[in-house]
Amino acid sequence: MRVRSCWLPAALLAALTGAGALAQDFPYLLVSDFNNDVVRRYDANTGAFVDVFIPTGSGDSLVNGPQGLAIGPDGDVYVGMLYSSVTGNTGIGRINRYNGRTGAFVSTFFGGNLNRVYGMTFGPDGKLYVSSAQNHRILRYDTLTGTSEIVAEGGFTGQVFAVPHAMTFDANGNLYFSCVNGGSFPFHRVLKITANQLAGPLPVTPTIFIEGVSLPLNSPPQDNRLAGPRGLLFGPDANNDGTPDLYVLSRGGANTYTGAIVNAVLRYDGLTGAYIDTFVPSGSGGLNVPLDLKYGPDNNLYITHSGTPTSANGVYRYNGTTGDFLDTFVINPAAGLNGPTFMAFQPRVVLLSGVLQLQGRTSASVPTLITFQPAGGGVPFSKFVTPQASGALAVTILPGAYYVKVKPRYYLAKVFSGEVSSDLSGLDLGEFLAGDANDDNAVDVLDLSILIEAFDAGLGDPNWNPGADFNNDGGVDVFDLDLLISNFDAVGDELP
């Protein structure tokens, strides 16, 4: 199939910048407010409260026990919940998707018997990785279809992990996650799943990267400093081998472990897992019950604090180089924050809007798949939109340079390209050609066979096929045949 890159209209190029990747800016900090069942938004520069970006909602959009936060490659916000059962979910908890610009609810999914969500992150493969704590699973989701796979499954006796919590990837595509069970079979560990494992048959067995405290209590494990590991991430620094250090929150738990350093951030060699030092000392700045940590746009380290008293709940900031306490960046009285769990720095999201026409139809309200391929390389990602009858459509995206494939159902695709740095409106996408009854982006004998089989059929007839009703008049007839013949042997555009 051929590729044709259609540049955006010249009149609109004033809104586009030159070639090359755009530096992302992160104007907001999102924080899951567990006890108020909302996601709050703060100014990423000042810490000032902006708004409740995602309210409690109801029905499918209900927020109940928000935990993990992840920003998708398109800028949409994903919220993982500890609770929130929905019809059809045999577990407890789910993941909701929200528009990254408006906070409007988009969809919900909960496959893989999702049960109490904690950490979430997008992998280099474009999939969403999720810790399902109650059934001891690491799951992987296709966010377009909502389908899931079990990446790893633990438990208790005989297993290497239980109750997975936070997760992060290194630059080589290896996945690391913490597990925090403190019961009869305590696992205070950081586990590793290699990129090769993730690319192969699933599920897999993780390896122990960092071993923390273990039974019997007060016995000398590999590193008895680590107890109740929560958030973890690779920092901006690196050792002589070029590998960034791994920072892990050591929160502690109900038991007292001799030698454990709790309510602190421990630093480990990112290649070997060997302990380096205590980067943020125990209780620094009043830190108590920390859950998540992130490096901010200012290269400082941010940690959610959800301990007592409630008035001290917030996000604490530490020097990203020394670990010294700087300030309480977000503090409870400013906006009623109660039980902050996970957080995410939110990038700026831009809006693309335009108009398309569909050959042979007066209404262009047809489900349309829009696929974005980063021009500098990377994994493509897609969004479904349904234009208005007039053909007007809009989609949100992160600033950047893209090839964009637009594929209305039963029509041939077009590919556009350009670099978008700000909102872009008034795009004229032109007319899309009809005849693709099997939706494979070509008009050929296969489509003709579908039309012939459905010929003279109308709505409700046993041989009715909506893919052959190109002009959308409720019947498959000579007008649809004329449209198909006019485009016979035509092939739609494909991404490079």
Protein architecture, described:
The chain has 496 residues and is mainly beta. It folds into two domains: 152 residues, Immunoglobulin-like, CATH 2.60.40.4130; 319 residues, 6 Propeller (Neuraminidase), CATH 2.120.10.30. The chain has three helices and 32 strands. The strands form eight sheets. The protein has a five-stranded mixed β-sheet with strand order 1-31-30-27-28, with no helix packed on it. Strands 4-3-2-25 form a four-stranded antiparallel β-sheet, with no helix packed on it. The radius of gyration is 25 Å and the shape is elongated. The termini are close together.
Can you give me a brief rundown of this structure?
With 496 residues, the chain is mostly beta strands.
Write the layout of secondary structure elements.
Blueprint: E1 5-7, E2 28-33, E3 38-43, E4 49-54, E5 66-71, E6 77-81, E7 95-98, E8 105-109, E9 117-122, E10 128-132, E11 137-141, E12 148-153, E13 164-169, E14 175-179, E15 189-193, H1 195-199, E16 207-211, E17 229-234, E18 246-250, E19 264-268, E20 275-280, E21 290-295, E22 301-305, E23 314-318, E24 325-331, E25 340-346, E26 350-358, E27 368-374, E28 381-385, E29 392-397, E30 400-408, E31 414-420, E32 424-432, H2 445-454, H3 478-486
Parallel strand pairs: 1-31, 26-32
Antiparallel strand pairs: 2-3, 2-25, 3-4, 5-6, 6-7, 7-8, 9-10, 10-11, 11-12, 13-14, 14-15, 15-16, 17-18, 18-19, 19-20, 21-22, 22-23, 23-24, 26-29, 27-28, 27-30, 30-31
